[in-house]
Backbone:
């Protein structure tokens, strides 16, 4: 009985840990390329890279519905595209 209880508790702890890692990351703020400084663009690049990496980890390791998977993937693409557009504007200005 004690062994079953310990096994159950361990399973619950591990599954709650796994579920915590399956949260979709928060979208990073993208600065406006027309007015952003180099430091702001660099900070945004790091934030976008971390967002994409975390989103990809969610897609690979979590059981998501097809609809949820499509939403996460779409959000990743939108954030990356938005950053790239603003980076292009920043580089044209600089």
Residues:
């Amino acid at each position: 009985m004690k062994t079953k209880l310990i096994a159950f508790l361990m399973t619950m702890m591990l599954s709650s840990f796994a579920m915590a890692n399956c949260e979709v990351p928060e979208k990073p703020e993208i600065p406006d390329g027309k007015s952003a400084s180099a430091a702001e663009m660099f900070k945004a690049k790091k934030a976008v890279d971390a967002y994409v990496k975390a989103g990809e980890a969610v897609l690979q390791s979590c059981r998501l519905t097809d609809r949820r998977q499509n939403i996460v993937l779409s959000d990743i693409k939108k954030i990356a595209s938005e950053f790239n557009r603003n980076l292009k504007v920043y580089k044209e200005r600089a």
User: Anything to note?
Assistant: Residues 7-20 have pLDDT under 50 and may be disordered. Residues 2-93 form one domain.
